[in-house]
């Protein structure tokens, strides 16, 4: 028995476009982002990768990307489960800040540590900051972080993977997870058993479905899975890696 899992990062968001750290701030997709989501849906349809259930974060850029792509693939009717555990990594006090300005102010090393290290979180956000979610009624009862390293995301995603996602895979459903650059990196690290050094080099492009076939132990049959458009994915990942450079 093998299982099918599709990972989909949202299309370009307003703050991806303006080069701002986003995290839990609920920004919309741009028109380009919507277009990317449509292309992602067309890839699902063309390659016959048809999700039976979709998991999303609570953030509109992931929710809308899921809806747009599933609409194009004629799968808008499938069940949906949303959970804060799939939210983007909380970018702490960097939320709302311009990536290039932060790199110039703090230097390459710190910038890359905050973006891609496994265990070093960015600085904490003040709960009263306009970009904090500490007082957001949407997150009542949720342990809203003040900042997160990727290791914190792995800690919140892994139990959700076990409790909610694996049982759906076990029934033979094709599962799609529509989420974010870093919450998906947490899942990739977990699935592929990547080291901290290896995951630091992984960048997830916007809205290109990444298909994993998993064996009976939920381990990838092909390590790192397969993008449905590998060329576009390589270009998209390189663009993400280069963010913050002039
Ligand atoms: C981006 C990722 O998250 O940024 O929070 O700024 O996937 O929701 O657009 P997403 C953010 P980087 O870690 O790639 O800088």
From TrEMBL:
GO molecular function: phosphoglycerate mutase activity
Enzyme class: isomerase
NCBIfam families in the record: pgm_1 (TIGR01258), PRK14115.1 (NF010713), PRK14120.1 (NF010718)
GO annotation, biological process: gluconeogenesis; glycolytic process
Name by which UniProt lists this protein: 2,3-bisphosphoglycerate-dependent phosphoglycerate mutase
Chain residues that bind substrate: 9-16, 22-23, 61, 88-91, 99, 115-116, 181-182
Pfam families in alphabetical order: His_Phos_1 (PF00300)
Keywords assigned by UniProt, alphabetized: Gluconeogenesis, Glycolysis, Isomerase
Enzyme Commission number, as recorded: 5.4.2.11
Pathway(s) annotated for this protein in UniProt: Carbohydrate degradation; glycolysis; pyruvate from D-glyceraldehyde 3-phosphate: step 3/5
HAMAP family referenced in this protein's UniProt entry, alphabetically: PGAM_GpmA
Residues marked Transition state stabilizer (site): 180
Keyword Isomerase found: yes
Native source species: Bifidobacterium actinocoloniiforme DSM 22766
Gene3D superfamilies recorded: Phosphoglycerate mutase-like
